[in-house]
Design a protein that fits this description.
The chain has one domain: ACP-like (Non-ribosomal Peptide Synthetase Peptidyl Carrier Protein, Chain A). It has 4 helices and no strands. The protein has 80 residues and is mostly helical.
Length: 80
Amino acid sequence: MQREATREKLRELMKEVLHLDRIDGDCQMGEVETWDSLNHLSLIARIENEFEISIQFEDFIEMISLEKIVDVISRYLEQN
């Protein structure tokens, strides 16, 4: 899957999980009120399901912005 397609799919997941109308730029965890630890876990679970990957803990803690999440997903997809 291309990086841009990954980014767009992720934007849709983030809007659903974080209850956002839109996502501008590089959405970051500390900047989004609804992106708390519980919603972070929900987002990671949805990402694993939608992209059919299993995210390791060291990558999980790195996933604090849209672009960092795209980077992690892209790495996992390249491995498959």
